[in-house]
Specification:
With 251 residues, the protein is α/β, with parallel strands linked by helices. The protein has helices at 2-22, 48-62, 65-72, 102-113, 125-137, 161-173, 199-207, 224-237, and strands at residues 30-41, 79-86, 90-99, 141-152, 176-183, 189-192, 195-198, 215-218. The protein has a single domain (30-237), classed as 3-Layer(aba) Sandwich (Rossmann fold), CATH 3.40.50. The chain has a six-stranded mixed beta sheet with strand order 3-2-1-4-5-8, sandwiched between helices. Strands 6-7 form a two-stranded antiparallel ribbon. The longest helix has 21 residues, at 2-22.
């Protein structure tokens, strides 16, 4: 009896030792159709009324039926969404949220609506890309596709498109697609290394990239929410957009 007791105790101790050595199994990543970062320009070049309009435009677009349908119509029936505002600094306004019902999206929009509007700053597209990549890489979510949707109304303040292109390449190396939303492109003509680009051309040259990547253009404030809604449907569904040739503007 005593010998049996010691054998049983040794077996229990051995099993316990293996359990504590190995620890609990790591949590499995949440699988979604798309991981989407909405990276929104709030730099000083966008004035307060435009920031108000832009925030309202996102709230309107996010609650459009066609956008909801796109988010819920993939093979897994859910996406992961986060909202980031950026200038020379970046901050997460609404953290990663799994959207698998219309109510999830309404809660996301309500959370966004409750956040205070930010102060302005310099335009750092490079910083916005690097921050957005970090959000995707550390979120514990496994998306079939991973997308950064970045808006801007001007070029990166550092002036050298190569720095932005390097940040884009870092995203592409991780399998992340970068799409663009160019705001008021007719007001911005950018010269990089002696070549003049309009803002749409700048986006294609230095910012957007990856399979099916594209830029959409907001020509006027009244068009913002409608253009954004169309863009969200395209990038969530993974559909190609009509992509104009990105040619420099000749001197």
């Amino acid at each position: 009896m005593i010998r049996w007791f010691f054998r049983l105790s040794a077996a229990i101790f051995g099993a316990a030792f293996i359990f504590f050595q190995s620890g609990p199994a790591p949590a499995q990543a949440i699988a979604v159709d798309v991981e989407l970062v909405l990276a929104v320009d709030v730099s000083a070049s966008i004035d307060r009324s435009e920031i108000d309009l832009q925030r309202a435009g996102y709230l309107t677009a996010l609650t459009q039926p066609e956008v909801m349908d796109a988010m819920l119509s993939g093979p897994l029936g859910r996406i992961a969404l986060t909202f980031v505002e950026w200038s020379v600094e970046q901050r997460t306004i609404v953290g990663w949220t799994i959207i698998e019902t219309p109510d999830d999206l309404r809660v996301f929009a309500a959370t966004l609506a409750a956040q205070p509007l930010p102060p302005g700053g310099l335009t750092s597209i490079r910083g916005a890309l690097e921050y957005s990549v970090a959000q995707i890489e550390t979120n514990g979510i496994e998306g079939t596709r991973r997308v950064i949707d970045i808006s801007a109304d001007g070029r990166d303040w550092e002036g050298d498109g190569a720095l932005v292109a390097a940040a884009r390449q870092s995203a592409l190396d991780r399998g992340i697609i970068v799409n663009g939303l160019a705001i008021r492109p007719q007001l911005e003509q950018v010269e990089v290394e002696g070549v003049k680009y309009d803002l749409n051309g700048y986006f294609h040259a230095f910012v957007v990239g990856g399979p099916g990547s594209f830029t959409m253009v907001v020509e006027a404030p009244a068009d913002f929410s409608e253009t954004l809604a169309k863009k969200l449907v395209l990038e969530i569904a993974g559909l190609p957009a009509a992509r104009p040739r990105a040619l420099p503007v000749r001197r």
